[in-house]
Amino acid sequence: MIQRFEVGPRMSELAVHDGVAYLAGQVPEDASQDIAGQTRQVLEAIDALLAQAGSDKTKILRAQIFLADAADFAGMNQAWDAWVVPGHTPPRATVQAVLAKPEWKVEIVVTAAV
Fold first, then answer.
1. Contact partners, residue 111, CB within 8 Å, separation at least 6
2. What string of pLDDT tens digits covers the 114 residues of the chain?
3. Is residue 14 part of a domain?
4. Based on the structure, what is the number of domains in the chain?
5. CA–CA separation, 86 vs 81, rounded Å?
6. Are 56 and 97 in contact (CB under 8 A)?
7. Which residues cross the membrane (predicted)?
8. Which domain holds residue 100?
9. pTM of the model
């Protein structure tokens, strides 16, 4: 059985199957903020979606981070490091990418156990 959350015409924000939560790429609501602020917004959205699935950030199996500008790596890491739980840091990849909206600085995709 597949359970979908926040289903829209183009995509769902979250799908759960066989004890695994798959999140869509999360982007900031307020793109006027700097990289740390945008990253914090995205991480808050991830927390909320994981809670809907009955999971949390300590159960993240992997994270994929897309940065519009690699120069923002340190600022993103500052927000990330304050968010992750010591001893529960997930495998992670970070790449520079052209994001769907030019004002977005970061998009994060996670997969987590439920």
1. 20, 21, 22, 23, 60, 61, 62
2. 999 999 999 999 999 999 999 999 999 999 999 999 999 999 999 999 999 999 999 999 999 999 999 999 999 999 999 999 999 999 999 999 999 999 999 999 999 999
3. no
4. 1
5. 9
6. no
7. none
8. 26-109
9. 0.96
